[in-house]
Amino acid sequence: AQSVSQHNHHVILSEAASLELGCNYSYGGTVNLFWYVQYPGQHLQLLLKYFSGDPLVKGIKGFEAEFIKSKFSFNLRKPSVQWSDTAEYFCAVNAQAAGNKLTFGGGTRVLVKP
Amino acid sequence: EPEVTQTPSHQVTQMGQEVILRCVPISNHLYFYWYRQILGQKVEFLVSFYNNEISEKSEIFDDQFSVERPDGSNFTLKIRSTKLEDSAMYFCASSGPGSETQYFGPGTRLLVL
Known about the structure:
The complex is a heterodimer. In chain A, 0% of the residues lie in helices and 54% in strands. Chain A has strands at 3-6, 10-14, 19-21, 23-26, 31-38, 45-50, 56-58, 64-68, 73-78, 87-95, 103-104, 108-113. In chain A, the strands form 3 sheets. In chain A, strands 2, 5, 6, 10, 11 and 12 form a 6-stranded mixed β-sheet that branches. Chain A has a 4-stranded antiparallel β-sheet with strand order 3-9-8-7, with no helix packed on it. By secondary structure, chain B is mainly beta. In chain B, the strands form 2 sheets. In chain B, strands 2, 4, 5, 6, 9, 10 and 11 form a 7-stranded mixed β-sheet that branches. The mean pLDDT of chain B is 93. The chains are: A mainly beta, B mainly beta. The A-B interface holds A 32, 34, 36, 42-46, 49, 51, 90, 92, 94, 99-107 and B 4, 31, 33, 35, 41-45, 48, 55-56, 58, 91, 95, 100-107.
């Protein structure tokens, strides 16, 4: 069975700082990879996804993620965060041979100080 | 932009009672899902539903749980006899034909006393 781990539970940083959130998964087959964000009081929203092709994917709000197959990683990055990026970020994996279910990481709470 | 909606937003119930959580998926979507998140834990897959039947379910989805698409728009999760450990946030999601991207509703927070 696949599993997903996110390295940091909490991250605190100042506006304009760079952000990188780690995500590793364990599954030997082909995967689809996702980052979702949950802003305070709101529902899970898709930030970006990787299915195939260019391993560097760009999402909404200036976020990007890089799929490194050899490292089973899909880290999320943003060069310069804003206060409005305060949210919880979830990495999720869908193993293509295992139906449509998503397996989530534990989430990372990001607090951006103004 | 179309969204998945869920009702109620909060529900408090007594242990042993039945609850029905309701979801309205995005209108042209064909795949429907329920997930839950117990406080402080990961979001966990419960069940997926396609073509009026369950396509996959997790170990959590035991005989106490059932899903139904009673009409062309609603998708429901029923818990027959709630337990304390069923207290969680329940998320509905849907995805379209040929799309692996799931869109989530705002969740229903269920508290079992």
